[in-house]
Write the structure tokens for this entry.
Amino acid sequence: MSGYISSAVARAEREDGLTELLDDLDRELGPVDDADLAWADRALGLA
């Protein structure tokens, strides 16, 4: 059980770090616009 909890805590910390990085990028570069999101979806085969 402790391994599961340790894994969940580590995952939450990684997600928090990613959220902070994305927030920093938004502040520096501005938000991603819809055209860029559409391009990424097509490039990844999601659209």
